[in-house]
Every structure is written in structure tokens, then in C-alpha cells.
Amino acid sequence: MNNDYTQAELYEIIYAHAEWLRDLHTGERADLSNKRLRGVNLPCVDFRKAYLRGADLREADLRGAGLCEADLNAADLRGADLREADLQGSDLSSADLREAYLRGAYLRGADLREADLQGSDLSSADLREADLRSADLTQATLYGADLSGADLRGVAFCGANLYAVKGNILALGPLGKRNRLTYAYSHDNIVYVRCGCFEGTLAAFAAKVAETHHGNEHEAAYNAAIEFIRTIAKLRWGIASC
To answer: Is the whole model's pTM more than 0.90, yes or no?
Structure first.
């Protein structure tokens, strides 16, 4: 695959990084930024705090890897196997994670801003307090994932499987003339709605519905959805006024 390192050379880097983790004055912090590492076989590797910015890790086997606080900004992880990997606090902003396997991954507090997660498997992943602003979760599987406290503003959810997801998020529908789903979620005790090209507060969504659908067949359905969101926000999310 014309990678930049052989497997043996990678093991030397892993050993030096392990020494650095034990004692910052020995060993050497792994820096594989922008390196070609496609298809590498590194299950359970300890790359905590490693530099992997822009690395090509397509189809890499990183099952159970320790990647806590690693810098994976803009890394190419398409099709990578990251099942059960520890990515707590890692920087995955702008990373390409299309079709990646992240089942059961620990992503608490991870930076996933503008990450491309189309078609990825995030089943049972821990995404508590993760920053997912403007991430693309189109057709992603989030069955049983924990999104409690995650920042979901600007996320594209089209076709995502949100069944049994934990956290302050709702999918309602199909609604409107295009029969699409409408999503509601909260951040900092403010309820937001994502419906097609619209994203804004629940109050702004109600105003938009009144403006766009006044008197037509969809107005009643949207208003019923708005009242349902308000009820859930009050009873389950603890947001009394929205």
C-alpha cells in the first residue's frame, strides 16, 4: 500500500512512545502526522496523546486502541476499525470517518466538529459531552449510543438510526410535504430544532411554521410536534420554558 513505515518500524515508534508516556524525559512522543498508514494492523496500540493529524489510516485495525487525547484532526479514517477504542478527549475535528466502525468506542468529550461520520457505526458508543457541531451523521448507526450533554448544533442526521439513543434528542415524523424527519435536541437548556434546511430554537421554529404553513394542511401536524417537543423538554429534559 506504499505506506511510510513497515510494521517493524511502527513497533519501534510504539515502543518509544510507551517510554515517553512513562517518563517524558525518555522515549519519544509518536508523531505520525500526515503519514500514510493505510490498513495497518495495530489493535490495542497505546497511542495516547500521539500526533496523528492528517494521517491516512484508511481501513486501519485500531480495535481497542488507546487514543485518549490523541490529535487526529483531519485524519482519514474511512473504514477504520475503532471498535471499543478509547478516544476520550481526542481531537477528531474535520476527520473523515465515513463507514468507520466505532461500536462501543469511548468518545466522551471528544472534539468531532465538522467530522464526516456518514454511514459510520456508532452503536453503543459513549459520546457524552462530545462536541459534534456541524458533524455529518447521515445514515450513521447510533443504536444505543449515549449523547448525553453532547453539542449537536448543526449536525446532519438525515437517515441516521437513533433508536434507543440516550440523551436529549428526539426524532419526529415524517412531517411536511417532503415527509422528512424533524429533530429536536437541547444544549445549555435551550431547545433546538433541525428540519430540512432550518435549524434554530424551538421558538424560532414555531414562528417559521406559522409563517410558512399558516392555514395549510401541514400546520396542525407541525404544531402538534412542537407541543410534543415542549412536553418532552419539560418532563424529561428539565427545561420548563421553551
So the answer is: yes
